Amino acid sequence: MNLNHAVQAPALGKRLLRVAVVGSGPSGFYAAEALLNAPGLAVEVDMFDRLPTPYGLVRGGVAPDHQKIKSVILVYEKVAAKTGFRFFGNIHIGKDLSTEELSLHYDQVVFAVGNETDRRLGIPGEDLTGSRSATEFVGWYNGHPDHHHHQFDLSCDKVAVVGIGNVAMDVTRILAQDPDHLAKTDIADYALDALRKSRVREVFLLGRRGPAQAAFSPTEIKEIGELHSADLVVLPEEAALDDASASLTLEPNDKKNVGYVQERARLGEGTKNKKVRLRFCVSPVEIIGERGRVAAIKIEKNTLIKDDRGNIKAKGAGRFETLPVGMVLRSVGYHGIALPGVPFDAKSGHIPNENGRVIDAQTKKIVPGAYVVGWAKRGPSGLIGTNRADSVATVQAMLEDAVRPASGNAPKKSSQAVVDLLRTKNLRFVTFEDWKALDRLEIESGARKGKIRDKFTVVDEMLSALEAAKKGPAFSA
Ligand code: NAP
């Protein structure tokens, strides 16, 4: 057993701990896993999600050509199969059920709500037609019900992606690679059609700092460099380390990134049909429009300086360049959305907390029974697996609190009471068994089309399919 991922269960006697987990992405599932695996703990975990489908960004964020990453779902299925676990999909906490109602039914509530929106650049032209967030583009090609209705005009030949994190790598790869490579994945059909008709031939990836500060992982940039359809092009003068970065001892991944982009810079333009032009030390200062649409992006060259804490910062050098592009995708990080009744720090986009215990933003006092995990706790950083140790740490705090008289000793309602409440409110909730029926329908439909999965992209269609399947043989299969 990996001790880093095990919690010490407190002596609660025969008392049953009832926990609500709000959000069914990785951090929510890792919190549920830690609770359900805690030795000697009698616990019931009810997981809520506003969508009928579980798994958060693993379903709606991970790129369709990264199916290996999605196999982490097998771990979550094991958690869902444990005694004491229930899934309530299609229930929006803050709308369908209030956090006050949750606290009447549960000893503890864990918010695993992630960061559902994107950060903005704050430059002129950001709202022009054709200037979009990577979050929307990712949700669109992944068939997320919030994003299936977007239209992306891919009739231009040049696109700028602002930011060089792993999300930027994903959207660039989807734009630059051969759509045939995506056809067998779970990409939404409408997105595959649009990508097949795409005229995009050049993607400018714009990093505001240098190669030593790049946020992409070595594997992700290498994947772009190895595309059959596109050359990764780097300017030698931008791949070279600046004086400030050269004075640092680089982390192993940063060293790998620097070595890789310098190697690419030596290869020049290449001969492939499409180009991914990775630029360093440039910041967008304006998105220029023509007749209300994106026509170009103006960038400023940066110099890098070391601040008092030794961090490398970008500073505009007053030299500008204009890149003619028909679309801009801003990929500068995610941002949280406030949940009614839950403290929120609007600046950072997090739920304020101390080691996972939610604190009131004004009084700085701990809010009894409220906890947070994942990106809502620490911001949009790390890979899927990073969430495991992070959720375990919060669960450890929850179990320490569970033994204290101040927390959770008031008798809570039975596990049936929440079901009755949802029914009284006429709310149609989706159980894990229901989800497995949807899952089967998606896989069967995908098999007929030669795809891994054919996703439902509209909530009403999911619910109708469930109703129909319950009447027919598919549901009982
Ligand atoms: P991220 O890793 O934080 O990258 C954000 C990028 O935006 C950075 O290059 C950042 O530059 C840049 N940026 C921020 N503000 C900017 C501004 N005002 N102007 C220009 N550039 C700006 O965020 P992300 O790409 O959204 O990824 C979120 C998390 O998900 C990360 O932990 C990532 O590794 C993970 N993820 C992983 C995978 C995968 O493993 N395949 C896929 C997708 C996402 P600075 O560095 O200069 O701030």
Describe the protein in words.
This protein is α/β, with parallel strands linked by helices. Helix content is 34%, strand content 21%. It has 18 helices and 18 strands. The strands form four sheets. The protein has a seven-stranded mixed sheet, sandwiched between helices. Helix 1 (26-37) packs across helix 14 (386-402). NADP nicotinamide-adenine-dinucleotide phosphate (NAP) binds at residues 66, 121, 162-168, 170, 207-209, 213, 215, 217, 220, 283, 331-334, 380-383.
Strand content: 15-25%
What is the radius of gyration? Answer: 24 Å
Return the structural class.
Answer: alpha/beta
Q: Number of DSSP strands?
A: 18
User: Count of helices?
Assistant: 18
Ligands bound, unique = NADP nicotinamide-adenine-dinucleotide phosphate
**What is the overall silhouette?**
globular
Strand order of the largest sheet: 3-2-1-4-18-17-16
- What profile does the largest beta sheet have? 7 strands, mixed
pLDDT averaged residue by residue: 94
Low-confidence stretches: none
**How many angstroms separate the termini?**
35 Å
Helicity range of the residues? 25-40%
Which helices and strands, and how do they pair?
Layout: E1 17-22, H1 26-37, E2 43-49, H2 56-60, H3 67-70, H4 73-80, E3 85-89, H5 99-105, E4 108-111, E5 117-118, E6 131-133, H6 134-141, E7 158-162, H7 166-176, H8 189-197, E8 202-206, H9 218-225, E9 230-234, H10 236-239, H11 243-246, H12 252-267, E10 274-279, E11 282-290, E12 293-306, E13 312-323, E14 327-330, E15 334-335, E16 353-354, E17 357-359, E18 366-372, H13 375-378, H14 386-402, H15 415-424, H16 432-449, H17 459-471, H18 473-476
Parallel strand pairs: 1-2, 1-4, 2-3, 4-18, 6-14, 7-8, 7-14, 8-10, 9-10
Antiparallel strand pairs: 5-15, 11-12, 12-13, 16-17, 17-18
Helix pairs in contact: 1-14, 6-7, 7-9, 9-12, 16-17
